[in-house]
Amino acid sequence: xxxxxxxxxxxxxxxxxxCPMPGEEKLxxxxxxxxxxxxxxxxxxxxxxxxxxxxxxxGDEDDPLVLxxxxxxxDYRALGVLEELADEYHVxxxxxxxxxxxxxxxxxxxxxxxxxxxxxxVREAYGAxxxxxxxxxGLGGALATMYAAAYPDDVASLVLIEPSPLSGDILTNNYDxxxxxxxFDPSFQALAWQGEVLAAGDHARLDFRALTIVxxxxxxxxxxxxxxxxxxxxxxxxxxxxxLDDLHRTGNKTFDFDYATGIDGWDGKALFIASxxxxxxxxxxxxxxxxxxxxxxxxxxxxxxxxLVAEAPDEVVDAVRDxxxx
Amino acid sequence: MRVPSRSLLRTLASATLGLFVSxxxxxxxxxxxxxxxxxxxxxxxxxxxxxxxxxxxxxxYTRGLSLxxxxxxxxxxxxxxxxxxxxxxxxxxxxxxxxxxRIQAKGKNxxxxxxxxxxxxxxxxxxGRTTAWTLELSAAPGLYRHGFTFAAQLTWRxxxxxxxxxxxxxxxxxxxxxPPGTDAxxxxxxxxxxxxxxxxxxxxxxxxxxxxxxxxxxxxxxAGVDYQPGDPYVAFDLxxxxxxxxxxxxxxxxx
Lengths: 326, 255
Fold this sequence. Notes:
The complex is a heterodimer.
Chain A: E1 19-20, E2 41-46, E3 49-58, E4 65-69, E5 90-94, H1 112-125, E6 132-137, H2 139-150, E7 155-161, H3 168-178, H4 186-194, H5 203-215, H6 238-248, E8 270-275, H7 282-288, E9 296-301, H8 308-311, H9 313-325
Parallel strand pairs in A: 4-5, 4-6, 6-7, 7-8, 8-9
Antiparallel strand pairs in A: 2-3, 3-5
Helix pairs in contact in A: 1-2, 4-5
Chain B: H1 8-13, H2 19-32, E1 43-51, E2 55-64, E3 74-82, E4 92-104, E5 110-125, E6 128-145, E7 148-166, H3 168-172, E8 194-212, E9 217-227, E10 245-254
């Protein structure tokens, strides 16, 4: 049974407003770019509205452009190692709106169409006239695939670091084998108990609570260890995840979305980088995702889990660089 | 008039019996024997298990009070609960106590039990530890008969003030946010652990059924729905950890 409703942000007179005690500073998680002007950021129009986007660019603006897309419930801090590519490429990393340290949004601004527009806006902001390279991690890999499928002439190269399921059918068919959660999942239980004293009444508290999921290894199971390596992050995008899940979920374990429609029309070569210890690792990618692409290869990072970017950063960077240089 | 036992503080601090047993056990146990002043010091202990809001085990304790104004209607209640399946991963507890007052016309089976409680609930997660002072107000109108109780449960529970203690993982969120050269004086550091008010509200509606199996043993079942105002109301969602229902089974012993 799935019960859904829309998230309601709290008004000042709300019944469930949490308020700092007199003299206490704001707690829970770091402020977002719209709340902290010192953060590196830019303004992008997303969904017709200007949004403060936490973003950094590395390297020479004249070098080929590489756009980096982060995973779900995390941000681009996990992919900071890709800054090493800045000696040859103009690398742009950002937190998608609603995630990381970028401005928070409500569910009316969360959709696949808006994500496509956001990626296009970043590309336009950095003046790319040539096809760009996309490096996506987890959900970012799925979104990169969606962009390449929608705009095949705009994408020169795809690097997909253990992308999350590219379609609802893939996720539905593999859900029990790959997904964490349920009434007996320890992180879910811990969150449920914490809800006795700390409700997810606003973005900050929801993101603070979502940190439990991240620290437990994220959304997908790790097959080698009960203590998976967690890449660093600044702030989970808790509500973005809730809203996206609400958008795609049709039942308790069924989903309806497709990031890969049309990807066989993209004539580039995709590189998959996957671990051997994640439920969505190399075997999952080989069985479910590679067949969707016209031309793709997979590099396996042995002994790593979904946190492979943190567990084997040199291997990941080398694999990305070699593929971009091809 | 027999005054309340001076072990009041001891009663509140000891293993607990919640409202449910007091509602069930008290009425059914009292009805099995004539109500005399000697009965009003009856104590009950019990235990319950179930999903509330995760897999939890509670110990319950009640103690009857002799009050000349309303004998045989008032009980002190206390409860200690732990989320048993995650104690090794995310230990926590809840300890609360209060009062249960049964209002029932003489000779009638229909009545209502009103109960205020207050206490402490602690939850720990990889993000940190949250310890809250809680307040709960409940009303249970229903059928209170000899050996059997069937009542609605209407509860409002809030975390009045919560202390948040950050884990290292939570503090790390605040690191490395600014590019080199940022004026250190303007950087917003990680907050120290502190207090926040009114961090959670729960509205519950459900039912409880109880049976006196023998004069000294009671069983009960309670189930219902739980609503948190302002919270994403999605069952089994990882990011919210919401469980919009509860169900428990309990057994109590009265002496």
